[in-house]
Amino acid sequence: MTESVIHSWLLAIGMPTQVTGPFESAVLILFLSLLSLTGYWLIKRLVIPLATKAIHFSSTTLDDAILHHDILPRVGLLVPIVIFYSGLDLLFAADEPIAEFGHRLIMVLFILVSASAFSRFLRAVHETLATSAFGR
Description:
This protein is mostly helical. Helices cover 82% and strands 0% of the residues. The protein is built from 6 helices and no strands. Helix 1 crosses helix 2 (20-57), helix 3 packs across helix 6 and helix 5 (78-91) packs antiparallel against helix 6. It starts with a helix and ends in a 5-residue tail after the last helix.
């Protein structure tokens, strides 16, 4: 459905039929990029500052360690990755090899960023436990 809407829009603005295929992909990539950037910007400018303020008001030390180890910006990187993963089906048919490669590549990025955030979280937990009464 999405391809036909973009295809008809490209034809309506006078694009020749022979070149609408690559332009459809370019429009979808541009749309996914803008959506990813917007999602990341919202996380970076709205969600993380609100979470930071909430963390400053709490009395626990684990969330302070989470803030100190920059876990929230790392988790915020997952938003564009998830958007691209979800939007990849709009670009390619599910049975195309490039779609399979794209899904696997994006999954590798997702795992790397998640592992990095989880590693930082474990460091924050370790730091909190080492300085608390449990670590003594």
